[in-house]
Amino acid sequence: MTTSPISESEQRAAAAQYDRDGFFLAPPLIPAELLARVRASIAAVYAGKYETGIPPIGQQPKRTQPPTTLVKIDNSHRSDRTILELVSHPAIGRWAAALTSAKMVQVFATQLLIKPPLPEGQVSVGWHQDMEYWEPSLEGNLFTAWVAISDVTADSGPMRFVPGSHHWGLLNSGDFFSSNLDALKKRIQEKSDRDAWQEVPAVLPPGGVSFHHNLTVHGSGPNLSTTPRVSFAIHLRTENSRVREGVKWQDAGFLNDFTDLQGSPICYRETG
Ligand SMILES: O=C(O)CCC(=O)C(=O)O
């Protein structure tokens, strides 16, 4: 677990890697003590118990059994103070700022993702670019931090990134909700007019964090381990981003109003 400040040379190397590849795997950032509390909060939210009385976005089924499909719970940080503490953790903010040279970093949406261990073909996350989902409402410097709560091993269906794909432009050819990764890969290759395709798995220990650019192509395969893969995707913006003209927050779905600091907490602000 790294709490130490990020040195200038470390920052330069990390930012260069992020610019080149479109993603970066930070050293583990979240203390074990917080992870233990977050796991208890996840169990409560999963069961429909909301500490703040605010439900997550969208219809949540009554859950009394372990999951049999991908669980995606949007904005549970509004429902639970410990989850809010995690997603706005200053260590995530510091690394986010270091990678993007930001003066300010703000959370604008989160997803709790639980991928149960199930055979091939049943639960994957289809190749996509995050911007496909944000482009109607937002523009500018937007990106994602992904925090491993469980041990994300090579066989647990880790996220996989296609390095350099953030230079391919917005392709609008992905689908988070499809498990047909091969068909999506073909569609993305055709649209981007590229045969070359490399995949890098983001294997992370509990508390490990990856960051990816809003145009980086990513997805994940089935969880072939014996335990659920548990994580949070934390969607972030810098001061160099904005709501598109004419967009009203009530029409922006799972995106939180930037002026609502409970829904959109600030996790980094430059001082001095
Ligand atoms: O958890 C995954 O496998 C995919 C998550 C994702 O698409 C994201 O964090 O943007």
Short description:
With 272 residues, this protein is an alpha+beta fold. The protein is 23% helix and 25% strand.
CATH architecture assignment: Sandwich
Q: Please identify the top-level CATH class.
A: Mainly Beta
Ligand inventory reads: 2-oxoglutaric acid
Give me the CATH superfamily. Answer: q2cbj1_9rhob like domain
* Unreliably modeled segments: none
Secondary structure tally: strands? 11
Plain-language structure description:
This protein is 23% helix and 25% strand. The chain has one domain: q2cbj1_9rhob like domain (Jelly Rolls). The chain has 6 helices and 11 strands. It is globular, with a radius of gyration of 18 Å. The chain is α+β, with helices and mostly antiparallel strands and 272 residues long. The mean pLDDT is 94. The structure holds 2-oxoglutaric acid (AKG). The site of 2-oxoglutaric acid has 11 residues, from strand 5, strand 9 and strand 10.
Task: Reconstruct the topology from this structure.
Layout: H1 8-21, E1 23-26, H2 32-46, E2 71-74, H3 81-87, H4 90-100, E3 104-115, E4 125-128, H5 131-134, E5 138-148, E6 159-161, H6 181-192, E7 200-201, E8 209-213, E9 218-220, E10 229-243, E11 266-269
Antiparallel strand pairs: 1-8, 2-3, 3-10, 3-11, 4-9, 5-8, 5-10, 6-7, 6-9
Helix pairs in contact: 1-4
